[in-house]
Specification:
With about 140 residues, the protein is mainly alpha-helical. It has helices at about 20-35, 40-45, 55-65, 85-120, 125-135, and strands spanning about 70-75, 80-85. A two-stranded antiparallel ribbon has the order 1-2.
Length: about 140
């Protein structure tokens, strides 16, 4: 199933919660770690940390499958879920979508801000960006 990711981008949040909800992120972290699981097993792991309804986990995992982030197939009476995309590929996809949107609509502002941000906060990465630009332009 192709990814049908429509997400809200919340830049103030941390990590993947920027694009997935907190529970979706926790579930994906479990499935990326375990590679495959059932709702029952994921619920058991989550409920060890806090109180959460089985149906909440089931609904969230079904929605992740509808979005194409999880695959599911029936084994006996239970669905078995597995990530349809690796965590690294998911992060790459999200970064590309966010940057494509910003660069398509606000190219000058986005580029200037990125360079200024790196100069202030991470000069090493700015040098890496400069090297990447030079290697692609032959300058």
């Amino acid at each position: 199933m192709p990814l049908n990711m429509r997400f809200r981008f919340s830049p103030a949040k941390d990590g993947l919660v920027k694009v997935l909800g907190p529970l979706e992120t926790e579930i994906m972290q479990i499935l990326w770690q375990d590679e495959r699981s059932t709702v029952k097993k994921v619920h058991r792991r989550l409920s060890a940390q806090r109180e959460i309804a089985y149906t909440t986990v089931m609904t969230t995992m079904s929605r992740l499958a509808e979005k194409g982030v999880l695959n599911r197939h029936r084994e006996g009476l239970a669905y078995v879920y597995a990530p349809s995309i690796s965590e690294e590929d998911f992060v790459t996809m999200v970064v590309r979508q966010v940057l494509d949107g910003l660069l398509d609509d606000y190219s000058d502002t986005a580029i200037e801000y990125m360079v200024d941000y790196l100069a202030r906060n991470n000069p090493t990465e700015l040098k890496r960006l400069q090297s990447a630009i030079q290697s692609r332009t032959g300058a």
